[in-house]
């Protein structure tokens, strides 16, 4: 039975995530579905609920860069972009540290990292005490859900869902920060000109 949460039930949602729940929630871009970082069983269920191909890793959402200081390695470029655009609709591809179990990144040495500009969600992530592994709320290959109703219809096996509005309605801009130069992998709400201006 899918539990429906209200936005004041922050501690309840954090507690459910810590207990291995897979929950959906509005972000600043589209609806997301997530499990707590550190719980591989929950991550496997998240992928199974989305029918996501095993070789496609799930991005990470954190409440602050401080929360991921032992998880990711931030280049000067990544730090500059984070300072300019996060919290916000930007996902940074960054390298991970040696103490991260590669099972969380499908064997990759990188992860997609984002701090959403969504105050309730940030409070939930903070209360959970760990970043979340978060993907868009949809069946793999389908358009991302923009409402609670769409997310519930597509992902009936969710443990719970938070009602709310997504502002942008478009998935985040993805920037690969692992090389010498920043590479925009997906255009989103933050345009290339703004990114180039920061890095110039």
Question: Would you mind describing this structure in some detail?
Answer:
This protein has 200 residues and is of the alpha/beta class. It has a single domain (3-199), classed as Alpha-Beta Complex (DHBP synthase). The chain has six helices and eleven strands. The chain has helices at 10-18, 40-50, 76-85, 119-128, 148-154, 192-199, and strands at 3-5, 23-26, 31-36, 60-61, 72-73, 90-96, 110-114, 132-136, 160-162, 173-176, 183-186. Strands 1, 2, 3, 4, 5, 6, 7, 8, 9, 10 and 11 form an eleven-stranded mixed beta sheet that branches. A hairpin with a 6-residue loop joins strand 10 (173-176) and strand 11. Helix 1 packs across helix 4. The longest helix is centred in the first third of the chain and has 11 residues, at 40-50. The protein is globular. The protein starts with a strand and ends with a helix. The mean pLDDT is 96.
Q: Brief overview, please?
A:
With 200 residues, this protein is α/β, with parallel strands linked by helices. The chain is 28% helix and 22% strand. It has six helices and eleven strands.
The CATH level-2 architecture is identified as: Alpha-Beta Complex
Taking all Cα atoms into account, the compactness measure Rg is 16 Å
Which structural class fits the helix and strand makeup?
Answer: alpha/beta
> In angstroms, what separates the terminal alpha carbons?
51 Å
Q: Count the helices. How many?
A: 6
**Low-pLDDT residue intervals, each spanning 5 or more residues:** none
Largest sheet: 11 strands, mixed
Bulk shape: globular
Number of strand segments? 11
Strand content: 15-25%
Indicate how many domains the architecture comprises. 1
**CATH fold topology:** DHBP synthase
Order of helices and strands: EHEEHEEHEEHEHEEEH
Mean pLDDT: 96
